[in-house]
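Input (Beta-aspartyl-peptidase):
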Amino acid sequence: MMILIKNARLYSPYEMGIKDILVAGTKIEAIKDKIDVGALDIDIIDAQGEMVHPGLIDPHVHAIGGGGEAGMLSRVPPLQERKIAESGVTSLVGLLGTDGYTRGVKELVAKIKGFKEWGLSAWALTGSYQVPSITITGSVGDDITFIDEIIGVKVAVADHRCSFPTTEELIRLASEVRIASLVANKAGVVHFHVGASDLGISQLFEIVDRTHMPIRHLFPTHMGGHMDMAKRWLEKGGNVDITCHSDADEKAASLLELYPDRVTLSTDSNGSFPKWNDDKSAIIGMGAGSIAELKNYLDKLLASGLDKTLALKAVTENSAKAMGFKSKGKIEVGMDADIVIRDGSDIRYVIANGSYLVKERVAKRSMYDDIC
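Output:
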């Protein structure tokens, strides 16, 4: 399949001016001021001078649903493919959360494989909040080495729901991930859910201070609640993920202006947002994350006066680098054809790996749209 996008106001995420973009198969074939395809029978889209940018990347998604802290009824439903596409997301990383008992890594990887069959790019993390980590093979390292979709592990710290792992346990876990990632030629991500405790990422600082572990392997999320630590972590050369919730746009903007290459945004989509009483003995309110918030918070950043490239990097190039997605996050010749075509703030087209997921504002159907 070939697609020619004409008159695109291209942000690659870097501002490129008005360009034509040629997609051939799954890749971006050419980017020029004008592209003439003659009599070739290909799809031609006139972007009409509107913004065109890379497909969004969400590095923290509860693909099969999260939650469960308030009993079985509080398990959040799985994420639908159509909602992902409608949000402009073309790549994501699925993971587990608090509940590693009724949900497992096999189910997660199966869901990720389904996303890929539908047309998305998708990966997974083994493990959940707990230590020792739950896995498919019995080993975090084997999961990363032998299962294509698995690029790292999820673990929780500084949270009353975590396993309170020691720093030594986290060092061994990070070491296992690093060695397996070298063998498997993957990024090797240790993705830390960081709870509200004042401990924050103190154990992560201890890991990099005590060992030769490259800081790029340690990827803390929910860092909007630990801004001082986030700045210190960025100063050390680490990546920081901010969850799209509350004033995340303001917090992300303040960090992006200082560290434009290592701040990311994620949604925690289909994960639960429990509100606890003061002593954490009861839940007094419950919400859930939405994949739509990645675009919503990008739009807030774009409207805030922050440089548009910085805003876009947080949901494209920066996430691709942090996750080791070498062909994602940029609209450049040779990269995967993951493209969003806007009409103002609306999404007009979403192209993923060279195929339409949204076409003239209508999303591709999921298999069970009619019944769920």
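The longest helix spans residues 167-184.
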